[in-house]
Amino acid sequence: MAYEWDFAIVLENLPVLLRGLGVMLQLWLSALAFGLAAGFVIALGRMAAAAPLRLLARCYVELFRNTPALIQLIWFYYAFPIVIGVQLTPFAAAVIGLSLNTSAYAAEIFRGGMQAVPRGQWEGASALGMTHAAVLRRVVLPQVLRLMLPAFTNRAIELAKTTSLASVLAVQELMYQGRLLSATYYRPMEILTTVALIYFMVIWPGSLLSAWLERRLARHG
Amino acid sequence: MADIVLETRGLCKRFGPIEVLRGIDLQVRAGERIAIIGGSGSGKSTLLRCLNFMETPSEGEVLLDGVPIGAPRRHRDGRVTTAYSPAALCRVRQRVGMVFQQFNLFPHMTVIENVMEGLRTVKRLPRAEARGKALAQLHRVGLAEKLDAYPARLSGGQQQRVAIARALAMEPEVMLFDEPTSSLDPELVGEVLRSIRTLAEDGTTMLLVTHELGFAFHVATRVIFLADGVFHETGTPDAVLRHPQRERTRAFLASHAEFTF
Amino acid sequence: MRYDWDFGAVLAQAPLLLDGLIGTLRIAAAAIGLGVALGLVLALMRLSPRWLLRWPAAAFVEFYRNTPAIVHFFWFYFAMPVVLDVSLDAFLAATLALATQSAAFYAEVFRGGIRSLGPGQWEAGRALGMTDGQAMRRIILPQAMTRMVAPFLERSFELLKTTSLASTLAYGELLFRATQVNSATFRPLETYTVLAGMYVLLLFLFSSAAGFAERRMTAFR
User: What sections of the protein cross the membrane (chain A) (predicted)?
Assistant: First the structure.
């Protein structure tokens, strides 16, 4: 059997796919920024002095890590509006879902990193009369951010792949455009393969960066 | 001569641009105990490792019972090298046992399983027969009471004695010891050397790379001082260790002055 | 905002949800089995001295690790059948997508485990006269296995979550059944909350069992 390839369709519709890529990048970067910020706050909650706060933060992390991201997106699009009484756009629901999902993982990276700093440094800095926040900002974070960099890069890669789930909510990102085009022209092979390659070209450099960071960290400790 | 068990002719080994062995001619007769000594980087471990093909020789031949190992391969430019098939090397290694500096016991197996492994997997002996042979060798190295312990529970000296039993169980014609006591704490060296000495008294043919010059003096029938990838001086222990003829040998022995006979 | 919670209507659909649970477990089991087998082959190829084996396996692994799972699901369900002129049902397409994607990750688990053993163990096996195959089977793999347990379980945990993507192919797993429950009850908040709860429970049970298995399998150390 000879399948007749037709990549002209792909070329014609490349602008549509690139528009989808633009939306994907918006999703990715905004969810990454929100997710890291929220993750930092949750990490502080995980290490708080008050036990109820610690428990709450722990439940949050476990909840998001023990459910599929797709279900989180669906929940924020279909269920969450009922709780708050406001209908969300698909894009907003996707950003919320992806951000909170990322925040749970980011919290664990922050926590792991900060706990890697020896107690003595906290105490030493406190002895200098620095406040807790100042110790965190000036002593702890500068040291651990470097250690955490590979883990954060990996998380960013996972997030980039997870943005494709927003297509299920009809967010017009890359995967959505790919699904639409392949249904319209009935050329799923050419179009979906192209979509996969675009994702690959965007995400692969991140993987190479992550591998390089890990090697560097292994060398210099 | 008929009683030459192991022989090398013009053995060379290069790692990239570095020539580690430069034409080694060695004949090992049955029952001989050869101690190979030399500074670090002299190529003594590499020589041993070429004999059971842990390293592939770059040039030259290794003969076992007079039969060359590998098949000559003629290149287009007229050079002739030796090609070694995996199956041929497996057969050689069953006949030439090796004990490593780092013991390399199998940590997921008990002591008796370690010693039985080669008999079961390579020689395909029935379980009972393999167990019998393994027990006999563990008796020989004095570890019959540790059969079911995992290596992690043993001292370094005990681990090395298990490794010796594991190699012996295959009933090799020649035993190779690659610095068997170098990674042991000083107080554990004695028990391993005693085990090796027992084998020597039983007439086992062996080659031993070692820094234990005192042990070499008492146990070896021949001592080879290796330097820069060639035999610099060879002879009886008395000749090489007590009356070295060459300056380089004397300097080496002087730097190991702590040894006593 | 006042909202009248009503779980009754959703719980009345329990048989449908249980059917979905079985679907999820079925697809996860099939994908783990196939994925592990394929992953082992890929790992051995990547460890081979021949570049003709090494290179395609590396490309496969890199491609799958750097593209979103949902693209693979659609590719196997819509694209591949068109080219090969076969038809795959949703179960088969989803299993193939999950298995190939997971194989890329399992391959790295195997490779990492095998490479974590130094050359000494290989040499000890060879010195007894073992072929490389015997050394691999008797010496290397059994030890590598125990080091692989933790990353293997982590990957399988991710796989279990990714099964939810099979719903996009209308395969009757948990999420798909939940969307059916939702259209029957018009209770998205309750439906998707129950669904999330089921996943939390399922994954909690999985991690507990995994933790138990891990302790058992690494006991000899």
Answer: 27-49, 70-96, 191-213
